Amino acid sequence: ISAVKGEYKHFMQKEIYEQPRAITDTIRGRVDFDNMQIVLPELNITAEQIRQLDQIVTVACGTSYYSGLVGKFFIEKLARLRVEVAYGSEYRYSDPILDERTAILAITQSGETVDTLAAIEEAREKHATIWSIVNAIGSQAMRVADGYIAMHAGPEIGVASTKAFVTSIVDQYLLALYLAQARGTLSQDQLRQAIHDVSRLPDLIGRTLEMDAAVQELAQALYQYTDFLYLGRGINYPIALEGALKLKEISYIHAEGYPAGEMKHGPIALIDESMPVLAIALKDDLYEKMISQIEQAQARGGIVIALATQGDSFIAQKADHVLYVPETPYLLSPVVNVVPLQLLAYHIAALRGADVDQPRNLAKSVTVE
Ligand code: G6P
């Protein structure tokens, strides 16, 4: 096994570092650069059939569910199609409203998560179109679907998902553009810009990985705390959820992800000098709001770590620690922002001597209900 891990201490670390290459593989072959079009023949659907759809329901579990929360923004914004995101384990108990004008999008790295498969079954009985985004080729979720999109992340060994998360997000971006082409919701210029943006991701993530030493140093300062709060807004709220999930999965530290605007309705009561608060506060439309939430956390003694846009020196006066990420177009910013949060969870877990690749009580793929 150590040979396979190569220069890395853990598979999770290796898989975090593989993300630029994995995303390159995800995009490869899906863009027809001559015609500036997305091609997804495995989705197995015509433009006419796409135009018949009136909603998409994403079903997934764990990290894949948070990927779906990000993808909802893409499909709604770029293709103007309504998206609902549901937990695989809840969906079939909700008497869901769906019919032949619904496409179910199951996101699952393993393709074998039993709750996600059960949600697919529920949708099949109600005549929805079934799509899956899978990493494991030949898995059940791929076989039972009408069409699929592969993540092309390569084998993911660490129980805590990393490269499958980012590649499944990129897959949903490509899907959103593909749907937009059929629905005519983007101009040729907008489509060209979107393709350009997604093509830059491997480079942006490569640059983000250069902050690893800074994240490790931060982990030194934080690894003995027992409760963390992660705040985000808009498309980065799911990244706050995912950052908190990574930390609890592998370090066994209690961590909560919260939409920053809801902090005043509960979590603020918990904040004191024993609580690190990680705030995703980029230079986007929500920046001013995030700054005011950082001020509130700090006024209560919280240890504020800001995830900020490179060049933002103002925020350094507001936060105790700052992690800088390269400027990225808003819709794709989650893919970059999750990387330092993966690294932070990884280093904190390693410092605590936890079994990073095989955390207690967790399984890579949950095939029981
Ligand atoms: C388990 C894993 C998670 C994963 C989830 C969903 O809980 O530990 O890392 O996100 O299952 O797995 P799937 O294979 O369906 O994406």
UniProtKB/TrEMBL annotation:
Keywords: Aminotransferase, Cytoplasm, Glutamine amidotransferase, Repeat, Transferase
GO BP annotations listed: carbohydrate metabolic process; fructose 6-phosphate metabolic process; protein N-linked glycosylation; UDP-N-acetylglucosamine metabolic process
Record GO cellular component, one term: cytosol
Record-level Gene Ontology MF annotations: carbohydrate derivative binding; glutamine-fructose-6-phosphate transaminase (isomerizing) activity
UniProt-listed Enzyme Commission number(s): 2.6.1.16
Transmembrane region(s): none
Reaction(s) catalysed (UniProt annotation): D-fructose 6-phosphate + L-glutamine = D-glucosamine 6-phosphate + L-glutamate
Domain SIS: 46-185, 218-359
Residues annotated as catalytic: 364
UniProt keyword Cytoplasm, yes or no: yes
Protein location: Cytoplasm
Biological role stated in the UniProt entry: Catalyzes the first step in hexosamine metabolism, converting fructose-6P into glucosamine-6P using glutamine as a nitrogen source.
Subunit-level organization: Homodimer.
The protein's name in its UniProt record: Glutamine--fructose-6-phosphate aminotransferase [isomerizing]
Taxonomic placement: Bacteria, Bacillati, Chloroflexota, Candidatus Thermofontia, Phototrophicales
Encoding gene, per UniProt annotation: glmS
Full-sequence portion shown in this chain: 246 to 614 of 614
